[in-house]
């Protein structure tokens, strides 16, 4: 490889890493503190907060495929990405100017539509680049976790010194900065045709796959919805905005090391054992929070997020790939993502808001723990049946 080509690859890699850092910095600066803003600054009830925060996962299920189709038609994912970044930043600023419940729902909906394009489009561009250059996707995507972790700490402190409106200004400013690096990304797209109808027909012959979809719904729903309610939980324990930042920094920062070693752990301990362990740790964490532990204990147990997210997600993705026939692998992964990341997230966010209004934030975590416990029981039964099925 000549020097000019090496330099081009190096600059492209810098653009990818910088873009992921900034994009997830923006996400981390807004969404962990948005429920606190809606509760303390706007004065919304728990159910109202739940409805607003559940808009994004619902929109993700419905709108994400449309962005993919638009990218396939135009073959200009980078252009679409810069448009989505610009609109998301503008909607973030407008969000800060509104306080009526109806208008907050409208702006949350508009923001969700354009935000739902950011991660799929950028991941599509980066996966195409990784495939062509034989680069490790994890080494690029890792900067997103770093950006999120830094954002919740830095913006939390800024919000405490000034006001919670800082979260919107930080979100918009950083997205506008990300546009520069997005424009440097390769403007390439690889079309993937997926027949959902034919895929589901073939997957119907694999009942364990649909059972695992239910498990993903029960496990990933609380994990993702925790990003909405964790800030309220820490604030109620007396952590303040800086404390919320510290908690999210520890939790998000713990994911990367576990993801780095996930493959070797899966090979050593077995995929089903990893799924059971990760679900068990997640379940124990939610039940612990129900008993209102001291803030120091909450900080110490945030490492459980690294274990549950960093191990469950890679193991679950591998399990789905092994369960599904090769011909419908893309469909299987697409459905898994929609059920776990979309439907499960919406369900726990929406009903978590209702529970928050009717009871308390502690009961929200009792709800999360109960869902994870059901998943743990099902996984243990599957593991026992798997052992019985193995001939002696």
Automatic annotation (TrEMBL):
<keyword id="KW-0812">Transmembrane</keyword>
<feature type="transmembrane region" description="Helical">
    <location>
        <begin position="49"/>
        <end position="70"/>
    </location>
</feature>
<keyword id="KW-0813">Transport</keyword>
<keyword id="KW-1133">Transmembrane helix</keyword>
<dbReference type="InterPro" id="IPR020846">
    <property type="entry name" value="MFS_dom"/>
</dbReference>
<feature type="transmembrane region" description="Helical">
    <location>
        <begin position="140"/>
        <end position="158"/>
    </location>
</feature>
<feature type="transmembrane region" description="Helical">
    <location>
        <begin position="101"/>
        <end position="119"/>
    </location>
</feature>
<dbReference type="GO" id="GO:0005886">
    <property type="term" value="C:plasma membrane"/>
</dbReference>
<dbReference type="Pfam" id="PF12832">
    <property type="entry name" value="MFS_1_like"/>
</dbReference>
<keyword id="KW-0472">Membrane</keyword>
<dbReference type="InterPro" id="IPR036259">
    <property type="entry name" value="MFS_trans_sf"/>
</dbReference>
<feature type="transmembrane region" description="Helical">
    <location>
        <begin position="332"/>
        <end position="356"/>
    </location>
</feature>
<keyword id="KW-1003">Cell membrane</keyword>
<feature type="domain" description="Major facilitator superfamily (MFS) profile">
    <location>
        <begin position="12"/>
        <end position="387"/>
    </location>
</feature>
<dbReference type="GO" id="GO:0015212">
    <property type="term" value="F:cytidine transmembrane transporter activity"/>
</dbReference>
<feature type="transmembrane region" description="Helical">
    <location>
        <begin position="77"/>
        <end position="95"/>
    </location>
</feature>
<protein>
    <submittedName>
        <fullName>MFS transporter</fullName>
    </submittedName>
</protein>
<feature type="transmembrane region" description="Helical">
    <location>
        <begin position="12"/>
        <end position="37"/>
    </location>
</feature>
<feature type="transmembrane region" description="Helical">
    <location>
        <begin position="272"/>
        <end position="291"/>
    </location>
</feature>
<feature type="transmembrane region" description="Helical">
    <location>
        <begin position="164"/>
        <end position="185"/>
    </location>
</feature>
<dbReference type="InterPro" id="IPR024989">
    <property type="entry name" value="MFS_assoc_dom"/>
</dbReference>
<feature type="transmembrane region" description="Helical">
    <location>
        <begin position="297"/>
        <end position="320"/>
    </location>
</feature>
<feature type="transmembrane region" description="Helical">
    <location>
        <begin position="362"/>
        <end position="382"/>
    </location>
</feature>
<feature type="transmembrane region" description="Helical">
    <location>
        <begin position="206"/>
        <end position="224"/>
    </location>
</feature>
<dbReference type="GO" id="GO:0015213">
    <property type="term" value="F:uridine transmembrane transporter activity"/>
</dbReference>
<feature type="transmembrane region" description="Helical">
    <location>
        <begin position="230"/>
        <end position="251"/>
    </location>
</feature>
């Amino acid at each position: 490889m000549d020097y000019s080509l090496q330099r081009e690859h190096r600059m492209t890699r810098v653009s990818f890493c910088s873009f992921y850092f900034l994009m997830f910095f923006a996400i981390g600066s807004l969404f962990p503190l948005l429920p606190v803003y809606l509760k303390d600054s706007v004065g919304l009830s728990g159910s109202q907060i739940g409805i607003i925060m559940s808009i994004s996962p619902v929109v993700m299920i419905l709108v994400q495929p449309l962005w993919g189709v638009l990218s396939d038609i135009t073959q200009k994912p980078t252009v679409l990405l810069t448009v989505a970044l610009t609109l998301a930043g503008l909607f973030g600023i407008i969000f800060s100017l509104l306080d009526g419940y109806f208008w907050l729902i409208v702006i949350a909906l508009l923001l969700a539509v354009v935000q739902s394009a950011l991660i799929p489009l950028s991941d599509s561009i980066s996966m195409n680049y990784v495939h062509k250059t034989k680069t490790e996707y994890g080494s690029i995507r890792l900067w997103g976790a770093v950006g999120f972790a830094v954002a919740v700490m830095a913006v939390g402190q800024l919000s405490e010194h000034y006001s919670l409106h800082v979260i919107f200004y930080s979100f918009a400013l950083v997205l506008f900065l990300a546009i520069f690096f997005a424009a440097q990304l390769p403007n390439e797209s690889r079309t993937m045709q997926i027949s959902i109808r034919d895929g589901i027909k073939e997957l119907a012959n694999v009942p364990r796959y649909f059972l695992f979809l239910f498990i993903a719904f029960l496990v990933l729903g609380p994990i993702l919805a925790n990003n909405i309610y964790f800030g309220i939980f820490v604030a109620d324990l007396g952590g303040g905005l800086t404390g919320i930042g510290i908690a999210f920094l520890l939790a998000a920062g713990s994911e990367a090391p576990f993801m780095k070693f996930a493959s070797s752990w899966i090979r050593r301990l077995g995929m089903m054992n990893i799924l059971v362990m990760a679900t068990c740790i997640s379940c124990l964490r939610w039940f612990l929070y129900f008993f209102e532990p001291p803030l120091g204990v909450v900080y110490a147990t945030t490492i459980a997020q690294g274990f549950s997210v960093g191990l469950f997600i890679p193991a679950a993705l591998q399990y789905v790939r092994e369960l599904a026939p090769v011909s419908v692998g893309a469909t299987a992964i697409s459905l898994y993502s929609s059920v776990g990341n979309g439907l499960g997230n919406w369900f726990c966010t929406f009903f978590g808001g209702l529970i928050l209004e009717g009871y308390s934030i502690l009961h929200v975590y009792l709800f999360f723990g109960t869902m994870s416990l059901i998943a743990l029981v099902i996984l243990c039964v599957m593991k026992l049946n798997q052992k019985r099925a193995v001939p002696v």
